[in-house]
Amino acid sequence: MNSETPPGPRERFYRRERHSVPAARAFTHRALTDWNVRGRTDDILLCVSELTTNALLHGVPPGRGFLLRLLPYGDGGGLRIEVHDSGGGVPAVREPDEGGRGLLLVAALADKWGVDERDPGKTVWCEFLVQPPVPSASSSGASAGSASV
User: Fold this and answer.
1) pTM for the predicted model, two decimal places
2) How far apart are CA 110 and CA 49, in angstroms?
3) Are 83 and 112 in contact (CB under 8 A)?
4) Model confidence over 52-73: pLDDT tens digits?
5) Beta strand extents in 27-138 (DSSP E only)
6) So what's the pLDDT on residue 132?
7) Which helix (H) or strand (E) holds 23?
């Protein structure tokens, strides 16, 4: 891969297991490092933690899992994070005194966020403008293969 090629998307499937959240965060950290993303990494990693935790707690039925996708966009100056699950419901930001603050944090830290319908389930996403990554030779589209989400 030459230095002019923007980094490609990366994705990984995770099962409905407690260790999936730190594994998703580590996967994201590796991608950001490979892509030489500078700035906002703490915010990005926190949002990955919140979105994947929400998927496990509210969006992944027993025996299923979720898909984490990391998508560079806009000439490498942006990053979209998507968490695909097969559960019902529409996530919403709650008032701080109502418990979970995950989407409140995502809304505060990300430049944009939203929810898209899919069949079955939904995709919860957020976007960040970051300093343009510098592609490296190790920027390959690692994937865990296909699986039921």
Assistant:
1) 0.81
2) 13
3) no
4) 999 998 888 888 999 999 999 8
5) 65-73, 78-85, 112-117, 122-129
6) 55
7) helix 20-34
